[in-house]
Amino acid sequence: MKGWAVDLDHCTGCKEAMLQPLPIDDVLDDLRACLADAGAVVLQAPPGAGKTTRVPLALLDDITGKIVMLEPRRLAARAAAERLAEGLGEPVGQSVGYRMRGDSVAGRRIEVVTEGILTRMLQSDPELSGVGCVIFDEFHERSLNADLGLALVLEVRAALREDLALIVMSATLDAGPVAELIGAPVVTSRGRSFPVEDRWLDRPLRKEARLEAAAADLVLQAVDEAEGGVLVFLPGEGEIRRVEGALAGRLPQGCVVRPLYGAMGFAEQRAAIAPVKTGRKVVLATSIAETSLTIEDIRVVVDAGRARRARFDPGSGMSRLVTERVTRAEATQRAGRAGRVAPGVAYKLWARAEDGALLAYPPAEIETADLTGLALELANWGSDALPFLTPPPAAALAEARALLADLGALEGGRITDHGRALARLPLHPRLGHMVTLGGAAAAPLAALLSDRDILMGAPVDLGLRLRALAGERVAFGTHKTALPRVRQEAKRLAKLAPRPSHTLPPEALAALAYPDRIAKRRKGDTPRYVMSGGKGAVLAGDDPLAASPYLVITDTDGHARDAKIRAALPIDEALIRDIAADRITPVNACHWSKRDHKVLARTQERLGAVVLSDLPWKSAPPDAMAAAMVDGIRQIGLRFSPAAERFRTRVALMRGQNADLPDMSDDALLKTLEDWLQPHLAGVHTAADWKAFDALPALRAMLDWAQMQRLDSEVPSHFTTPLGHDKPIDYSGEAPEITLRLQEMFGTTTHPTVAGRPLRVTFLSPGHKPIQTTMDVPGFWASSYADVRKDMRGRYPKHPWPEDPTQADPTLRAKPRK
């Protein structure tokens, strides 16, 4: 094979493996040619093609300098390094090495690194001195670190290192956009080494069926129908343990069950990868087994059809793990594991008809993840105008920068010395801030918060975990693999930590890392909390911390409204005031209390949304009280006196012909309360005050003098009766209407009008009961009045009822006594 500096005669155990043909072999010459011509290439090679173990070795004679290959997972990086070294007939540590967090072995020519390591290399040496080629393996996973690393490498190639070779390799990626981004040709390898038969369920899984039970049944079917080792894909460790329990005692004799997930130790992971000496192996794995990893003797795949992903909510500032359907790309990748060493079978826990509903590709992590680390790296790099394949969402990036500013890592958008110190630590910026300020004493807590829970079934108190980590006995079971791993990480972080000026308790350290999650208990029996960042959280009522007035919450389920608290520490107010003194602000505020139905004026000390002290504000200015009352009116709703309603009706009538008049509809008035109503609310502080308030003067003030004159002329508010009394005109019906006592219109011989329009007149009896409505008063006198007079004389004999009302004087008085 061209370009290989490999002495296979001296290669212990690798000669047979390296001579075995793989699909990638057919395109290696094309790959090298494209790389020599363009300096970059996108390699599209399906699972089993052999790209991870063949490509770096094929480039050894072509590349001057070291080849750095990125792998998305620690296990895959270490396994790839071992296979590459085996291909050269050497142990790891000579030509081939690897580097990951907490573990590294130097290599002269090839170094396999986890994706975050490349960012550290670029930040410390942007020219990548001594590196001749960077290979991004399994780029289809679109991890945040891989996207950032590619963007940084592209900028370095454009500005500093035109000679730096670049290869992006993927199994299921849509290669077109990547090739366009990096300006490179695409080389495509043919499919997997061996055929894989796909088998689906006959019908979709019932909604009420438990995933673990159905997966276990499908595993038993696969073991019965197919030969060889079985690789089962499940969402997470919890599902792995439950399926393992469901299979206990049901598998044929000789079947060995091996879990495989990221949080396991390397020894256990190796046991899952290594072939069994006798019998068959059933590997229960997470997505860790999807890529860059050949698990010996696997010929059968069982795919439960679920993937677990982190989802970040920029509104709450929290991430949560969600379990979703796999995408078609992931299903293809998983099925390919069955064809790595021999023809295989892939069993799928869904019906074939459901394939069409699967999304094509999983979302890029940059679209859904917490971007705090990315924002810090961009600030440390000095620019965020990088050529990202998928640009980071603006809202999530803004939220991340706000947190960094809160941590003191950014000032005016630029990185501070403290921010640079955080960027050097292999931790989330929150935890890096804690370790930087707290020193080695913060290392155990940082290690705890970086890993899975080390206690099983324990309350939320992190103090229990810290005591268990220190070796104290606690009344809860410890996670056998997580506990030693966290202890080891705590020791490593303690060595990296600076020496602090003074020692802080754990709750103070947690508050430094999570300044937006210092929480105060709300009033009421239920332990509900409001966090300084403004979001709510709730604690189980039987939790020992349920009565704590203040907490520092380090983990929740991520619910946007009332997140369930999963980890926290109690903290007292005095300590909060000590460590957050520069962020506690005095606030004088007036607000409408929905519970009290009035404006409350308070002077407070606030830590974000947390109110530390709350006293009456006796000197609250009237304009602040009025502004709060406006908020209350928006909740209570508008109300108008009859006179105010008539005024609004008049304006609405005239506005049909005069568009310059203001809109007095409910919607328009509610939107502009601050303009027309607030100046008139002096002394109105309660719902009762509002009920007694007459808004007519405020409505009239919306019209200028000329508009009022025109309104009174064209749509007058009152009709003057023959007795000189003003009767309000109601414009709400089809015609303007007045209501008055019949005797008050005696002597009227023409029908009354207003602005040229006839009035509808409703006559009332002396007892103020309607007796007649007319649009023709003279006609009423001449016709119906006689019948009305006959009826009314008997009912109201003391009041005048003349035979000819047109000749009588208007009156409201009764007849004089004889």
UniProtKB/TrEMBL annotation:
Keywords: ATP-binding, Helicase, Hydrolase, Nucleotide-binding
Example of a GO MF term: nucleic acid binding
SMART domains: DEXDc, HA2, HELICc
PROSITE patterns: HELICASE_ATP_BIND_1, HELICASE_CTER
Region (Disordered): 793-818
InterPro entries, A to Z: DEAD/DEAH_box_helicase_dom, Helicase-assoc_dom, Helicase_ATP-bd, Helicase_C-like, HrpB, HrpB_DEXH, P-loop_NTPase, RNA_helicase_ATP-dep_HrpB_C
Domain of life: Bacteria
UniProt EC number: 3.6.4.13
Domain Helicase C-terminal residue range list: 218-382
Helicase ATP-binding domain residues: 32-191
Name of the protein this chain belongs to: ATP-dependent RNA helicase HrpB
Species this protein is from: Pseudooctadecabacter jejudonensis
Encoding gene (name): hrpB
